[in-house]
Specification:
Layout lengths: L4 E7 L4 E6 L4 E5 H6 L4 H4 L17 E7 L3 E6 L7 E3 H9 L1 H14 L18
Antiparallel strand pairs: 1-2, 2-3, 4-5, 5-6
Length: 129
């Protein structure tokens, strides 16, 4: 698929990245979601078996968005994480599969015996008040 963003807006107070794509789809991606699904080798590893489960990121925010050519952005998070390039296709994929990815993430946390600070298992950032 080769979609391109037509608009990217960071809402730091609500910790959401709002992105609209050339196919007309618009997504509101929480910073926590983007951080735990970072495409970096530090998070994903070099193979699925090397992936590192991220947790404790409920209040993480994005400090900066740095364009990388015409194909990606680097997100700089306030917890010091700044590696990993979020290509347009990867951001679109995260938007399309947001609910499923989030439920899978919550399941992995549960299996690891990790409890989120936010007790709303839907992910409070996904359903802002």
């Amino acid at each position: 698929m080769s979609v391109r963003p037509t608009d990217i807006r960071l809402h730091q107070v609500s910790r959401l990245l709002e992105i609209t794509f050339s196919d007309g789809q618009q997504f509101r991606l929480p910073c926590e979601y983007l951080r735990v699904f970072s495409p970096s080798a530090e998070v994903q590893g070099h193979s699925p078996s090397q992936a590192v489960l991220q947790y404790g990121k409920e209040e993480v925010n994005i400090q900066a968005i740095e364009p990388i050519g015409h194909y990606a952005v680097k997100l700089v998070f306030d917890d010091g994480h700044h590696t990993g390039l979020y290509t347009w296709d990867y951001l679109h994929h995260l938007g399309v599969h947001q609910q499923r990815n989030w439920q899978d993430y919550l399941q992995r946390l549960h299996q690891a015996g990790i409890t989120r600070k936010n007790t709303d298992d839907r992910g409070a950032a996904f359903y802002p008040a």
